[in-house]
Amino acid sequence: MKIGAIATLVNHISLRVSVKYKLLEFWISVGHQVLEAVVRSVSEPAISCTRLLQYIQ
Fold it and tell me: How far apart are CA 16 and CA 13, in angstroms?
């Protein structure tokens, strides 16, 4: 009886930890994609501006 209860508790804890880990993984990947998009949207106009300046010079 006691072993079963301990096994259930361990199983429950590991399940909760894995769910939290998956959520964390998900948020990290989303944040990374958002960050990449922001960097791209900021850097592309900057690159085109420098190209334009080089072209003018």
Answer: 5
